[in-house]
Amino acid sequence: MCGIVGYLGKEEAKDIVLNGLFKLEYRGYDSAGISLYNNKDKRFELFKDQGRVAHLESLAKTAGASNLAIGHTRWATHGKVNQINAHPHESRSKRFVVVHNGVIENYKSLRRDFLNGMTLDSETDTEVIVQMIDTFAQNMSAKAAIQKTLGLLKGSYALLILDNKHPDRLVAAKNKSPLLLGKSDNGFIVASDLVALAKYSQNFAPLDDYSVAVIEGNQVRFFNKDHAPQEVIFEPMDFDDDLAEMGPYPHFMLKEIMEQPLVVRTIINKYFEDERLVMKPEILAAMAQSDRVYILAAGTSMHAGFVGKSLFEKMTDMPVEVHIASEFAYHPPTLSKKPFFVLISQSGETADLRACLMHIKSLNHQVITITNVRTSTLAREANHFLEIFAGPEIAVASTKAYTAQLIVLTLLAYAYGKQTFDIRKALSELAHAMESYLTDYETIEMLAKTVLTKRNAFFIGRGVDYYVSLEAALKLKEISYLQAEGFAAGELKHGTIALIEEDTPVFGLISDKRIALNTRSNLDEVRSRGARTVTIAIESLSEDEDAIVLPDVHEYLRPAMMVIPTQLISYYAALQRGCDIDKPRNLAKSVTVE
Q1: 406-432 b/e (C-beta count within 10 Å ≥ 16 → b)
Q2: Which pTM does this prediction carry?
Q3: Among 131, 143, 246, 286, fewest CB within 10 Å belongs to which?
Q4: What structural domains and CATH numbers belong to the chain?
């Protein structure tokens, strides 16, 4: 959620910042803005409004040439969605301009203590920051004013700061919220995500918590929380910008659904040497010293965690618990004596998980992060991390990253449990099965049109199919705005069946031979009460009347196969309702505030 891009260099800053903001649209936002230094008029120009970056681009057409600019996409946390609350924010004197990701928890007390009853233009915590810098700068240098302000902030922030007395300077500061610096022969670019850097830089340097980067002219200096100089270490960027393009597809979500066979094959290439699975020995050693695995995650990643729990307990005999990150962070359960933690996050920046990680590290427990972004905060701060290699996932609703998480969890469980079946062969068969199914899915489009005619829908299953049902329901809610719920099929008669009425859509998932007939019996129960049922079954367990039949794959990999038709159901349901599929309302791709 929210995006930041800043540029200082020899090129046209407005174009670079706007292009970066377009790249960050996937993170979710409700307004956008840009501030740039007009080289000719020697002043800052500010353009901002609610709406998309394309609207901002049209507003900024009149801007003069500039070599310095900062931009922002805002996901509202403080104040309404409107032009006034959009970033950037200017100080009262117009000297300083700021963009900010994060939440300042003590902004009300800061306003009371340091702004002397000043009337602010916006409702945001961010304006408090820029007004404080301006107030302090009346009696000290800009550097000291920024340092003093940062020292008073409690909460999370990624900040870019401009000073019209120093139009050749760009200041960046970071705590908890991600911020990365890229460089090229023509200048420096700062952004909250690698995707915004990729076109302009081959290297990047992540800012540490409480650090400040000062870019002046053609050099950059880093300072730590004690204001001491810090070494700037640039890393090569392993990012294919072409993968972040839509290509021939009408939406990123459909593209990413179709890329899932490729993701499985990529994971095979990354985790196997010839036929041998290669898992980091230090991870397996840490697990061997533990007595229980705790999986922490949120949203789609939590659903992958539930499947992971099933896989771990089947393959390793290790007891596993799954916890919602936002609950664990502040209401942790009684832990076992030797816990091992698995944190799952697509972005690696999930704020709830960051809070969990800080608590876990304070207890000196071992933790591994499973993420799609090796440069992320969670990947860098955990004891260990495993990359899922899904490539850029632009649509807000996760599809291929979920599947990649399932596969990497499977590999981890396989490696620790010392299983003997041919996992590489099974994964290759899974990729082939996905590919064959994704060549013919017209049935899904018709089902979405004819079955999803009510305001609500249910997905039911037992065992691991129940976990997939949770993810299926979340996808439908996220992008079509239909009220959808996933239920354990055996629980229907304990209350939920009261919601069934004529033509209520109920999707039943069947991939486990042991309970296939039980789930079919539950489908009969809702059908007899008027529900419109759709069965999604693995071929070996299918019956003639089943609407969706999927190729057989290894039982441990069936969740990755079963989720695909549910993703397509959600896609076509949203398409038929005219929804903004890649950027659903109120949602953000990377949830960087608690």
Answers
A1: bbbbbbbbbbbbebeeebeebbebbbe
A2: 0.76
A3: 246
A4: 3-239 (3.60.20.10), 246-439 (3.40.50.10490), 443-594 (3.40.50.10490)
